[in-house]
Design goal:
Blueprint (H helix, E strand, L loop, with lengths): L5 E2 L4 E2 L3 E3 L21 E7 L12 E4 L2 E4 L7 H13 L5 E6 L4 H12 L6 E5 L16 H14 L4 E4 L7 H10 L4 E4 L3 E4 L1 E2 L4 E2 L5 E5 L4 H12 L6 E3 L6 H9 L4 E4 L2 H4 L3 H15 L16
Parallel strand pairs: 3-4, 3-16, 4-7, 7-8, 8-9, 9-10, 10-15, 15-16
Antiparallel strand pairs: 1-2, 5-6, 6-14, 11-14, 12-13
The structure holds flavin mononucleotide.
Flavin mononucleotide binds next to strand 4 and strand 6.
Length: about 300
């Protein structure tokens, strides 16, 4: 028997595999495929205070080894989430994390204050890094100053742990992670999607109505892994790694690079069972390599 438990300090997970926000609906959509209790946890689609329709279609494009999305954070809002969705997904034997969005600092705080009054949420994942809401990918995670200000405000308001989700669309991701940490982040999640675009040669028009979108999937994995290593090897708080994880081997690489847990995103579109398959593959690898506790391999990368 392999001990699969993951330890984020502020949150103990039964295993290190979570489903990533925006690729797993509100969780219940995946119940026909597997028992949610098999997961370490899942992160629901990004929530603003009110409902949002997101961007105009087309808003998803397949590319070589990846997906470009410009969904634009479509969501039901906190009221409908707490009344219609949360009662169905809490208490299912897995950690429910809410991906928190806002048009400004006040909205992020309002979302967290509203949700704090409702049971069944393990932690917030602060989405300061969505590249397809504003033109040209602008978001708070692009600057240490806006990151620190927002994280500080949310931490002051929140009763629950706050994991800050960073953007890869920066020159120095370590600087942004440090700003989040210094402002009180309990954990860091990275990466969100990479600002990207696709062109239709025949029409000479962008394939996405929004022009720009966010690239995810296997194409981004090596860059995501580099960023997770850079942040995790310096951070004082636990790191959740993601970006192109399709197999147990991919997930284990992120753990060795320093992630305490991983999120599986685009893989869910290819195979709705991906997260549980990846967990099984992690377990098999550990069994074959004499690793009795998965958390023992976190950060064991040897350099030099
Ligand atoms: C269609 C789609 C929607 C997404 N929506 C969100 C979202 O609402 N909030 C968020 O923080 N990240 C969102 N993401 C980013 C993923 O959670 C993840 O950070 C990213 O896709 C990288 O992981 P992957 O390569 O395994 O997909 C979305 C990604 C995709 C593909």
């Amino acid at each position: 028997m392999i001990d699969l438990a993951a330890d984020l300090g502020f949150l103990k997970l039964k295993n290190p595999v979570l489903a990533a926000s925006g690729t797993f609906g509100y969780g219940s959509e995946f119940e026909p495929y597997f028992d949610l209790a098999k997961l370490g946890g899942f992160v629901v689609k990004g929530l603003y205070y009110g409902p949002r329709e997101g961007n105009r279609p087309p808003r998803l494009v397949e590319t070589t080894g990846g997906l470009i999305n410009a969904i634009g954070l479509q969501g039901v809002g906190v009221q409908a989430f707490s009344e219609k969705i949360l009662p169905k997904i809490r208490g299912r034997g897995t950690a429910v994390l809410v991906n928190v969005c806002g048009a400004d600092d006040d909205e992020y705080v309002a979302v967290v204050e509203f949700l704090d009054a409702h049971e069944g949420i393990a932690a917030y994942e602060l989405n300061i890094s969505c590249p397809n809401v504003k033109k040209e990918g602008l978001c708070p995670a692009l600057s240490p100053r806006t990151t620190a200000r927002l994280v500080g405000r949310v931490k002051d308001a929140s009763k629950r742990p706050v994991i800050v989700k960073l953007s890869p669309n920066v020159t120095d991701v370590v600087e942004i992670a440090r700003a989040a940490e210094d402002a009180g982040a309990d954990g860091i999640a990275l990466v969100n999607t990479f600002l990207a675009m696709a062109v239709d040669l025949e029409t000479r028009r962008p394939k996405l109505a929004n022009v720009f979108g966010g690239l995810s999937g296997p194409a981004v994995k090596p860059i995501a892994l580099r960023m997770v290593y850079q942040v995790a090897s310096r951070a004082r708080v636990p790191v959740i790694g993601m970006g192109g994880i399709m197999t147990g081997t991919d997930a284990l690489e992120f753990l060795v690079a320093g992630a305490s847990a991983v999120e599986v995103g685009t893989a869910n579109f290819v195979d709705p069972d991906a997260a549980v398959r990846i967990l099984r593959e992690i377990e098999e690898w550990c069994g074959a390599h004499g690793v009795s506790r998965v958390r023992d391999i976190v950060g064991t990368l040897e350099i030099g």
